[in-house]
Specification:
The termini are far apart. The longest helix is centred in the middle third of the chain and has 20 residues. This protein is globular. The protein has 22 helices and 18 strands. Helix 3 packs across helix 4 and helix 4 packs antiparallel against helix 6. It is an alpha/beta fold.
Length: about 500
């Protein structure tokens, strides 16, 4: 079955999958969604006998229907190669009564590698399929991990350039160093004076700036995105939830058809939306547990049915307190504008583009919107929870003390929220927790959670301490940045982002 894509804000203009991958963001500011959500056409028992590449093909072929079998398998083969440090690609570790799906075994030791290893191949294949003559310019905002994974994926890929914007004081030392040491003749890294939401808003403005796009098109450039707003980022993320289920099935941990829960630490909502798409595709999922850090805008949404980026919900369910942007030890989740939530809003509105557009217009003009009771009823699949900084630290320390297993702060947010969910509901359903980054990316936060004596120790020294403590080999990605020179040192105001792009392309 051929699947076409359209904007969440306009059902009428249809694109093929490859065209949607190339464009990234719809012209009206909406996000591309499939005209129907596909269902797995292989049984879970068949899929459990396949390796990661095999499962990836069977899932992705359902969404990317205008890619030929040869094209898609070629993209998969080039993406999931020896840049991953395990043949399993995404192994599962049992610890503390949950199953941690380790999504950080790629080149940049974060879950973004799972999709950004293949996106450049999907995009360059799409360019050939659609006879694109212009050079593709990837514009990306990052809260820490997307930036490095996108840079590594697109570095020196012919026919592309990539500019990454990140909050100068809003990422970890390791995350920043990974980005600013990135090699490649077609890459540019730019810090901004602001937070991630400022960076993301700035990038979206450039996508919607018709004058800027026309100016650059004359010079032979077209914009696209490597953020999870790009359907080419989202579809590969569906794969690892299906893969995780089939690994548990193959190991005899679950029986075929047995439901699991999935718990995901999320800020921009892309990673958990991929789990929702996996459930829609027929994966036996019970609850989708959405874990937020102290920037708890998604928690408030699932509790109330209101999305308010300006005000925080109090204990009585009223949005009475001004919401502040909080810098936490899990910076990739420091987000108040969760872009991918729009796709879920569209679906629970009954795929109604007019309803979705009206709500997004309210968000832009008033900073908030409230969904209808009918839409709230369609959120039964989800449970929202959040973890404070103290909660996150206690989960890191407790899991290490009890099991000797070390997790990063984002994963710890999910671990704490899962424990709270289990306590609140009594639900004993086996649960997969998306472990989104290596603890080595956040050595300072992790080591201080385990023992406060490390609070004054240099981040790079703590990497060796973490190695001694965990017994886990220091990833090559960390070794590479120890002595790498800084190649990118630009910092700009958000209003100057378009000019920095012009300067880069000149």
């Amino acid at each position: 079955m051929s699947i076409l894509y359209h904007s969440t804000r306009d059902n009428n203009k249809k694109l093929t999958a490859s065209q949607a991958v190339l464009q990234g963001l719809a012209e009206d500011g909406g996000l591309f969604v499939p005209d129907s959500l596909p269902v797995l056409d292989k049984s879970l028992d068949e899929l459990k006998e396949m390796d990661y590449k095999g499962v990836a093909y069977e899932v992705m072929k359902l969404f990317l229907t205008d890619y030929t079998e040869e094209e898609l398998k070629g993209c998969i083969e080039r993406a999931y190669d020896d840049k991953f440090d395990t043949a399993q690609i995404a192994p599962i570790k049992e610890a503390g009564g949950a199953y941690y799906l380790e999504l950080f075994h790629g080149a940049t030791i974060a879950f973004k590698d799972m999709a950004l290893s293949i996106l450049p191949h999907l995009m360059t294949t799409a360019a050939k399929k659609n006879n694109l003559k212009e050079e593709i310019v990837i514009l990306t905002a990052t809260s820490g991990d997307t930036g490095k994974a996108a840079l590594a994926g697109f570095a020196d890929v012919p026919g592309t350039r990539i500019a990454v914007f990140y909050p100068k004081n809003g990422v970890s030392k390791v995350q920043e160093r990974q980005m600013v040491t990135q090699k490649g003749n077609n890459v540019r890294v730019i810090g901004i004076e602001g937070n991630f939401d400022d960076a993301q808003t700035g990038v979206k403005k450039m996508f919607n700036d018709e004058a800027l796009k026309a100016e650059l098109k004359k010079e032979g450039f077209v914009f696209s995105s490597a953020n999870s707003i790009n359907i080419g980022r989202l579809v590969p993320q569906v794969v690892y939830y299906v893969y995780a289920y089939t690994r548990l099935l193959k190991a005899g941990t679950i029986k075929s058809g047995e439901k699991i829960n999935v718990c995901v630490p999320t800020g921009n909502f892309g990673n958990i939306l991929a789990a929702y798409y996996a459930k829609c595709a027929g994966l036996p999922v019970n609850k989708l547990i959405c874990a937020s850090n102290s920037n708890r805008v998604l928690y408030d949404f699932f509790k109330s049915g209101s999305y308010d980026k300006l005000h925080e919900m109090d204990d009585k369910g009223a949005f009475s307190k001004d919401r502040s942007f909080i810098l936490t030890g899990s910076p990739s989740m420091d987000i108040l504008i969760s872009s991918n939530l729009e796709r879920l809003i569209y679906h629970i509105a009954g795929d109604d583009d007019k309803k979705d557009k009206a709500l997004m217009d309210q968000l832009n003009t008033k900073g908030a919107y409230a969904i209808s009771e009918d839409m709230k009823a369609r959120l039964d699949d989800f449970f929202g929870g959040f973890a404070s900084e103290e909660d996150t630290a206690s989960k890191i320390a407790g899991l290490y003390k009890d099991c000797g297993y070390v997790i990063d702060p984002h994963t710890a947010v999910a671990g704490f929220v899962y424990d709270a969910y289990k306590k609140e509901t009594g639900d004993e359903t086996k649960t997969v927790i998306a472990s989104t980054a290596s603890p080595y990316k956040f050595a300072k936060t992790v080591m201080c959670a385990i023992d406060k004596k490390y609070s004054d120790t240099d981040d790079m020294v703590l990497i060796d301490e973490l190695n001694s403590l965990s017994g886990v080999k220091i990833p090559q990605a960390i070794e590479d940045i120890r002595s790498a020179p800084v190649l990118h040192d630009i910092v700009c105001a958000t209003d100057d982002m378009p000019e920095e792009v012009r300067r880069f392309l000149r």
